[in-house]
Predict the 3D structure of the following.
Amino acid sequence: MRARIRRHHEDVLRTFSGCPPWSSAAGRELVYTLILPLAVGVGLVHLVLVLFGVLTTVNLIGVPLLALSLVAARGLGTVNRRLARVLLGVPITDPAPFRPGRGLFRWIGAALTDATGWRAVAHALLRLPAAALAFAAAAGLWGGGLVLLASPLWRGWPGAALLSPAGLVLLLLAPSGLRLALAPERLLARTLLGMSANEARIRRLERARAFAADDAVARLRQVERDLHDGTSARLVTLAMTLGLAREELDLGHLERARPLVEGAHRDAKETMAELRDLIRGMLPPALDQGLETALATLAARTPMPVRLDADLPERPDPSIEAVAYFCAAELLANVVRHSGARHASADVRGRDGRLTLVVRDDGAGGAVTGAGSGLRGLAARTGAVDGTVDVRSPAGGPTVITVALPLHI
Amino acid sequence: MRIVIAEDAAMLRDGLRMLLTARGHDVVAAVGDGEALRAAVAEHEPDVAVVDVRMPPSHTDEGLRAAIRIRRDHPDVGVLVFSQYVETRYAAQLLAEGAHGVGYLLKERVADVADFLAALDRIADGETVLDPEVVTQIMGASRRVETLATLSSRERDVLALMAEGRSNSAIASALFLSYGSVEKHVSQIFAKLGLPPSDHDHRRVLAVLRHLQA
């Protein structure tokens, strides 16, 4: 999300900042504008086809024609999307591919209800004024500039002495002007040719669901392994030692039985401690009393001074509490392991339906959300409940990590 | 008895070594994975190898696969597969190579030290030892329920003990029956299941298992 906002921000910046006429971006935009009449022309022909299809739907012939032209609109949309992506540098995600069912009727049905196709048609229509604006700007600024610059060729002195510098000024303004005039084209391409908001949301949810499913299995597997390799092996050993001790007692060897019983006693205590840690790792019992209590326990257990500040007027859903708790645990563990910090703080707030967890430390900074880092897992886990993670960790510190979650799912 | 232990949990490995040493056995090697186990068996040719099913690196059935290889490469080495839980498929794979000197026991059986040591002795002598839990599961999972249904409940008790690898006299004392009546039950079972009688305990087990799993 943040990346998207930043990219948009850069777009806007680029639009308004001047750039020299010889820059390659200016060149690409000019090429785009010069191709525009062709793209618009093809779009117009296609629009006529769609219109014809719509008008003839009263006959049965119109229906397949309309379906066909909508699928063709997708193709046209793809071409326009690539042009905008390569020449205008607009970041557009590809929409989901056309997946009709089996059989002619399903194919026609899918084509007629294909949002991507209809949006491409809308693009062909709505872009007409946008393209006209861009083309007019290009003609006026680049064309006019060149013509004026060349005025000595077609007009005598002294007129040319005035016109020629004016042409130069126009040419210098041309890149910024054209960029500005292309803004509507950019906007239309972004909103109509890319993945629709719904599609993007579905894709995000699909990813989140896949993660949640994998994560659940991975956690179960981990618990199973911990129980199998840890607790269970300890209990078997314990039972074996007690079995030996019983045999010694049966034989009246009190002195041989004593060390065995002592060992078993020690094993039993260690097993209990291990089991307690394991249980806490699954879901801390303190969460029953709320996130605040659980975080206070966590802060107290962290081997570093942690200042906790919690303000939760409304209790979040249990699943949100669990995610927030595990985020805090992971982040504080990272602070202890990697940051070299001397102090850390954790703030939790619940406002306007959002839960915000901010973990700060005064350590070395330089935390990255790279592959294999715990932060990535964190981002995926929060993403699964529609949350976000924001990492600010300049080299030299301090590190501030903000986890935002919905209070309720 | 010379014994090799393969168990990845260090605590249990040391515990087993202590137990076996205390009972006068010679633990010639104690290792933590399948590769090391096969190397140790090749080097020491022990009387019995005690093998944990789940070991690194895959933590799935490393030990079982190593055990099967050992039974193929070193037929004289008895193998006791030692597992946290019962998998009838594991038991079947283990016995597929023949039921001579092989055992499959739940780890918790080690708590009854005497029984555990007796099982090791039997395996070293070439007998078969199956955990009662394995037998119960196999009998429960058998698709030939209708065949089993023809057995009387007493005959089923006898069959279960047979499947554990007990001899007729052991069955007799376990069920408080006379040796003669156990013999009668056994031949009844063989007759009802359509198996030719045999003198060898481990063949009986194999036959019973194969029949039940068919």
In short: Residues 287-406 of chain A form a domain with the Heat Shock Protein 90 fold (CATH 3.30.565.10). Residues 1-18 of chain A have pLDDT under 50 and may be disordered. The two ends of chain A are 19 Å apart (CA to CA).
